[in-house]
Design goal:
Elements: E1 12-16, E2 22-26, E3 55-59, E4 64-68, H1 71-82, E5 86-91, E6 94-100, E7 103-107, E8 111-115, E9 118-124, H2 131-147, E10 150-154, H3 159-170, H4 179-186, E11 193-194, H5 195-201, H6 206-218, E12 222-224, E13 235-238
Parallel strand pairs: 9-10
Antiparallel strand pairs: 1-2, 1-6, 3-4, 5-8, 6-7, 8-9, 11-13, 12-13
């Protein structure tokens, strides 16, 4: 007997509630579950021969430390952290189950985030798309309609984009500069200029001043061309709303 079409299949959501108890719900009853506040359904655990590994990603908006099972997932977590519309988020808090071909299939989205007031279920795009991946995405789309989720597939950055992201991520929380230093520096970028010259004009030490400029770019107060390698010689400018 052929599989039922996606709209007729029963999709079940598994997760841990805020007390750590394992729960199971039909997806139509999961609309109000705050997955972005919940713990991972299962913590990623490294083991011999594993192609990925456990690493952490900081969530600045909430002070969370997200356990990621791969560098691809961690890099997408960094992108989420830089998005000003993303508030609470969690890594791997749910798993979808459905029946296909006489067996149970599953999909565990990488993240759930509250973005601009809407619950967003996020999957990291694999290096190679398989039939199983595509089938899972079709079922996730069906579940999202029922549960009122937004679905997003994220591509991890690479090349220059990744290099720049790593620099900015390292400067996301400057430790030794006062808020007044940030304001003083920002005032010198009302028109486009190099980061180094803006730091010099603000009278800040070179190394800490450049780090602060990177922090302001991370926070999107300053802007730069992210398709080019980020250096102290890069041009930066204030955002249009400043």
């Amino acid at each position: 007997m052929p599989d039922a079409p996606p709209s007729q299949q029963t999709i079940t959501v598994y997760y841990l509630d805020r007390f750590g108890r394992r729960r199971e719900l039909p997806v139509k009853q999961a609309a109000q579950v705050p997955f972005e506040q919940l713990a991972p359904l299962q913590m990623p655990v490294p083991y011999p021969g594993r192609q990925s590994f456990v690493t952490k990603a900081w969530a600045s908006a909430t002070g969370q430390s997200l356990a990621c099972g791969s560098l691809r997932q961690q890099r997408c977590a960094m992108l989420l952290d830089r998005d000003p519309e993303v508030a609470a988020r969690s890594a791997g808090p749910m798993e979808l189950h459905w029946t296909r071909g006489g067996g149970v299939q599953s999909l565990r989205p990488d993240f759930v985030a509250l973005r601009a007031g809407r619950r967003e279920v996020i999957c990291v795009q694999p290096k190679e798309s398989t039939d199983g991946w595509r089938a899972g995405q079709e079922l996730l789309a069906q579940a999202a309609v029922v549960a009122d989720w937004r679905v997003r597939v994220m591509r991890p950055p690479d090349g220059v984009e990744l290099d720049n992201l790593m620099l900015l991520y390292a400067a996301r929380s400057p430790q030794h500069l006062a808020l007044g230093d940030a304001e003083a520096l920002a005032r010198h970028f009302t028109s486009a200029r190099t980061i180094r010259s803006g730091v010099r004009a603000a009278g800040l030490p070179t190394f800490t001043g450049v780090d602060l400029a990177y922090h302001l770019i991370w926070k999107r107060r300053l802007h730069t061309d992210m398709t080019r390698p980020l250096t102290p010689s890069s041009t930066a400018w204030l955002g249009e709303d400043e």
